[in-house]
Amino acid sequence: MQPAVRESAEASIEPLDREFPRQAAVVLAVLGVSVRLFFWFYTGRTWEDALITLQHAENAARGLGLTHTPQAGPPLHGFTSPLSVLIPLVGELIHRGFGLTLLRLLSAFLGGVSVWLGMRIAHAMGLAYGFVLLVGGYIALEHQQILYGMAGMETQVVLTILLFSFHTLLEFNPNRVGIGLGLAMLGRPDMAFWVGIVFVLIAWRCRREKDYRPAWIALAWLAVLYGPWLAFTTWYYGSPVPNTIVAKALGYDNLWYLGHGKRQLPAMIWSRIRYYVFGGLGPAYGGNGTGFQLFADGGAIACGILLLMIPGCLRAWRRKDTVSLGVCAFALTYSLYYLFAMNFSFGWYVVPLSAAIVLVSASGADLLLRSTVRHSLRRPVSLGFATAYLFSLVLVLPMCIAGDRHVQQFVEDGSRRRIGEYLASVAAPDQTVGCEPLGYVGYYSRLIVYDFPGLCSRKVTEFMRTHRGNHGPQVMWEALEPDYLVLRPHEIPKDSQWEAWVRSKYELVREFRVPEARAKQMLYPELNIDRVFSVFKHKAT
């Protein structure tokens, strides 16, 4: 008997033409679609920000303009993702009230497509069988991967486009590459970083092959797909830059680390890693909208997956194939972007990043496996690793889905929707409301809302621009004096100058509160900041 020989990681990479696990991919894709449909029908979850975009689409379909609040003035570009408004707009044109339903149906279907594409990419990267299943299982069953798309956000659409764009790097057909980039820009403007990464890879290949035609072809497709949108928004709004981007740049301190001491920064970065950017790599719940709430492992599983990026990037560098390099560059670039260049990395921002990291980390686990385990044991070991990891995600999924159902019933429908409906019943159409959360209040009241940081308010954005040194929400509301204020308890501290000003100018007319008995049924209710609101009416109104 010959002694077992442990092959080097380079020599042991299996050929890419081995059989793709088609049956497993179909099963996981169908499972992904089924879980998403169940989530939708069971929870009815509608994310706050989805209603902001939907309101634009509904107004456009009814001839009021592609804007949030027609009575506030000329149309304002109050949404960030073009596809997030175009898809519901098509639905509203087909049938009134079908906009959000169309986006959800498409997101459910694309959940299965994403599973298939993710597994195809993992297989093409030469990963062991178990790691291919891990990628597909993560996309199909991880809570955040399900939540945001089925709650009406563009997240699932963007993820599918991103995976398609990754997939185009396999054959590097410039037509498909350009189409993927054009669709990515229609998904989210911050995909500009990904466009830059891909064109660096294109330039590298073109220089090596001394043929720059692929670069021009890809650029042409990007211009054909994204150019008309830039032209339309420039003509219609006066600028292709969404007001949401301007408002967040003015209102949020995105360079959050400036002004903090060196002793504080490590703890702050660690908190952002666990609770805001990478928490979704392990068992976590993001349904309260205040970051990721972690379960018993305290984020250890997510951190372990994150650390596997190191050998994953090493493997990509050794292989030098465009898809591995591209996915790795995406994961690194957007990790740094969300960690250090964005104050609030909301849960739906990082869903595509999480999927990319899982691809890179699965590649890293594959490299370690090939370096330490003999060939005959690689399949069972990779399957064992994938099973354990996916089990940790599936174990908490029922709790997360139940949590989303309770948030929708008790907070969104039971409180925030009722606030909007109440304001619609007592206020005139040209009256104004000051509050931080725009979605439910704005959608169900159809009033002019001075939200913070002014996502759909030209007045608020202008205030932010002219008051750079002191532009907090309280200062803004004092300056604009809306007819109504809708405030959470922490937004009106007792015995503060702000409370005194509110009491002198406004009277309390209603309070909306989730009863304690219901709050106890929620998942991490103490981290949901929307359980209590007070409505104040201006005394001069």
TrEMBL record:
Membrane-spanning intervals of the chain: 24-42, 97-117, 123-141, 146-167, 179-204, 216-237, 291-310, 322-340, 346-369, 381-399
Protein name (database record): Glycosyltransferase RgtA/B/C/D-like domain-containing protein
Transmembrane recorded as keyword: yes
Keywords attached to this entry: Membrane, Transmembrane, Transmembrane helix
Highest taxon of source: Bacteria
Keyword Metal-binding assigned: no
